[in-house]
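During the no-cost extension, the postdoctoral fellow (Dr. R.K.) reprocessed legacy sequence entries with the updated structure-token encoder. One reprocessed record is reproduced below for audit purposes.
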Amino acid sequence: MRPQVLAIDFGGTKVALGTAATDALDGRPQITTRLPTRGAQGALKVVERTLTAARELLSTPAAVGVSTFGVLRDDVIRLAPNVPGWDGLPLPQLLRTEFGRTPVAIDNDVNAGAAAELRWGALRGVDVGLYVNLGTGLAAALVAGGRVLPGAHGAAGEIGYLRDAADAPTFADGHAPLEESVSGSALARHGSALLGRPVTAAELFAQRHVPAVAALLDDAVGTLSRTIANLCVTFDPQRVVIGGGLLGAAPHILPPIATALTRSVPFPPDLRLATFTDDAPLLGALAMALALATTA
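Re-encoded structure tokens follow.
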């Protein structure tokens, strides 16, 4: 039997696991298992159930790739408040205990999505690039030298903490101001308040005929477009790739971004949609595992 690698994606609502042969070419896992996160049970329970499922899926992986929400800092997870105990979780140590000498790579979910695009998708062959994930949250991944840059503290690309106004709250106040205004969760929250009923961010774009909704969306997309243009002025990427759960609204989102790049960036980058939307972090974890397996 060909050597197999294991990929794990820890998400806020679900955990996904997949396997692939070390000579996999297309980036799709051969076997996939999904578990509800059940975060209310606590972080250690989530990890315990996941590792039990991993043993059943593949007993002796050649390498393991892991994607998680939050960022990895000093061997613990930070900036991950949604699951009790995840912020401060020593995930690398738990994985070392489980997998022993098997090589393990860990990164956050957005960087993992960028890794999938680098190996198989819209960032393939790109030396300097930017991957922006528009989903429930908001974050980016910076690519240089054909690899994802973690930053000095593992937090490169955490653009949700950017401030677009002088009176915006700060991280020290317990806020992620940009994420709280333009992410999918923010749009759903504000849109639900405007319409007087629960709506998702994707559903909100179908309500643009309501003037207040149109104003909300125009403001959010304008802020996002300025932010991406500013990142491009700073970083000078060859290509910007937009991914995440809001890609269903791409016809409303991409044209303003393209206009901002053309008008504001001295050397406008190529703008593309991500190749992968569903399971991008799992595919990224798979890409990380395959990279380990081929260099071990």
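The mean pLDDT is 93. The chain has nine helices and twelve strands. The remaining legacy entries will be reprocessed before the final report is submitted.
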